[in-house]
Automatic annotation (TrEMBL):
Protein name: DUF58 domain-containing protein
Keyword presence, Transmembrane: yes
Pfam families: DUF58
Residue span, DUF58 domain: 192-395
Keywords: Membrane, Transmembrane, Transmembrane helix
Residue stretches spanning the membrane: 29-47
Species for this entry: Amycolatopsis lurida NRRL 2430
Length: 428
């Protein structure tokens, strides 16, 4: 009945048009003429897409690998209903479920939800919203696009946070039992606890022991408010891919774990991302982790050699007092020989330097290969690469530089462990 009534209305509206156009239809079939007329009228009765109003809300940030939602409110101020397909377009790396069916009566609004599952870090910017409004018979449609800006920042995933509880436990142990080994200037009394085998007898508090039922020892905390500067090399060496991700992403993950650990230890943590210019900087933030992930999110590797002199000068300019400078870069001999080594003493004379590098596990696998002649040649090349990295590490160690060279999964915990070892040795 609804279709019959709709056709009757269309026929009534079409009658004047038929009378006007009938002479020009003499050369074509009547059925084709009627179909053409219905298509034209269906198009005229389709709801307008130009008059639609749009507004966005929802997520503005999400961690890489997690899902978020962005809502689009569509209002129809027109006099005809809008029956449409809507595409809320995003870049492919946003992983958007962007096609929606929409029925919008006159004067009403609807909320459309687009789910995003990003596959890359950085700012994912919404493209245009395209609406295709069909007529009541579904024979024709109007289509139009609207700019409805919105940005979702995709943050580093911070996979290494799973290592944080165990390192925090070691930090508490360092602040308590092991910190008693660091006596003298720069330590402060922390608390009392029961004596256990292995404690220094000089830490026994005899007065407290006399009041208690057991021997009590004093615990001490190492001096806090040290300065840790994380330097991300965003030059060419960080662009190489290890597995499914660039070296830069693995370096970020290690930097985040160390930053959170150092902040919990009471140290000040700064960040600098540099190749030939400063791409990101965080200094003295009270909300450290949000500041770091937001600064890291849009970083991309540049296919240029890093200006080591400029990097060192920037670190020295920003960091006046002695600090632990953690440089996350490569251990390739040639770039270091031409860039960092000539000016290494300028940095090590004022700061404790630690270099963290992402190793490729594929190189170690190739070095162990002996299956055929090709595998032997690959193994020889891999052994040469490993030998060069060992030589660079030894040379840096002679200059007092701490080096952590590990595959992506092992780099964050090993870097955190080396930091804790420096704490325990009283070198920070």
């Amino acid at each position: 009945m609804a279709v019959t009534g709709r056709l009757g209305l269309l026929a009534l509206l079409a009658a004047p048009v038929v009378g006007f156009l009938l002479p020009s239809w003499a050369g074509i079939g009547l059925a084709a003429a009627v179909l053409l007329l219905l298509v034209v009228l269906d198009l005229l009765l389709a709801g307008s897409v130009r008059k639609l109003h749009f507004a966005r809300s929802g997520a503005t940030s999400v961690r890489l690998g997690e899902e978020c939602e962005v809502t689009l409110t569509v209002a129809n101020p027109g006099v005809r209903p809008v029956r449409a397909w809507l595409r809320d377009a995003w870049p492919p790396s946003a992983g958007a479920d962007d096609r929606h069916r929409l029925t919008l009566p006159p004067g009403e609004r609807r909320v459309v939800t687009t789910r995003l599952l990003p596959t890359r870090r950085g700012d994912r910017i919404a493209a245009r919203v395209t609406v295709r409004s069909t007529g009541p018979l579904g024979l024709a449609a109007r289509q139009g696009s609207h700019d409805v800006p919105w940005t979702v920042r995709v943050l580093p995933p911070f996979h290494s946070r799973k290592h944080l509880p165990s390192r925090l436990a070691r930090l508490q142990q360092l602040d308590g039992r092991n910190a008693v080994l660091i006596r003298g200037q720069g330590t402060e009394f922390d608390s009392l606890r029961e004596y256990v085998i292995g404690d220094d007898v000089r830490s026994i508090d005899w007065r407290a022991s006399a009041r208690a039922s057991d021997v009590m020892v004093r615990t001490w905390r190492p001096e806090r408010d040290r300065h840790v500067v994380l330097v991300l090399d965003t030059g060419r060496v960080s662009a190489g891919r290890v597995g499914d991700a660039p070296r830069l992403d693995a370096a970020m993950d290690a930097a985040l774990l160390l930053a959170v650990l150092a902040a919990r230890a009471g140290d000040r943590v700064d960040l600098l991302a540099y190749d030939r210019q400063v791409h990101a900087a965080v200094q003295g933030s009270t909300e450290l982790l949000p500041a770091l992930v937001n600064a890291m999110a849009p970083l991309e590797s540049s296919l240029v050699e890093t200006d080591a002199r400029g990097m060192v000068a920037e670190v020295l300019r920003r960091t006046r007092r002695r600090a632990l400078v953690v440089l996350l870069t490569g251990l390739d001999a040639a770039p270091l020989e031409e860039g960092l080594f000539p000016i290494l003493s300028k940095l090590t004379s004022r700061h404790q330097l630690m270099i963290a590098s992402v190793a490729d596990p594929r190189v170690a696998e190739m070095a162990a290969g002996r299956g055929d002649a090709e595998a032997v040649y690959d193994a020889a090349a891999a052994e040469r690469v490993l030998a060069e990295r060992r030589q660079v590490t030894a040379r840096l160690a002679r200059h007092g530089v701490e080096v952590v060279d590990a595959v992506p999964e092992e780099l964050p915990p090993r870097l955190a462990d080396r930091y804790l070892a420096l704490k325990a040795a009283g070198r920070l």
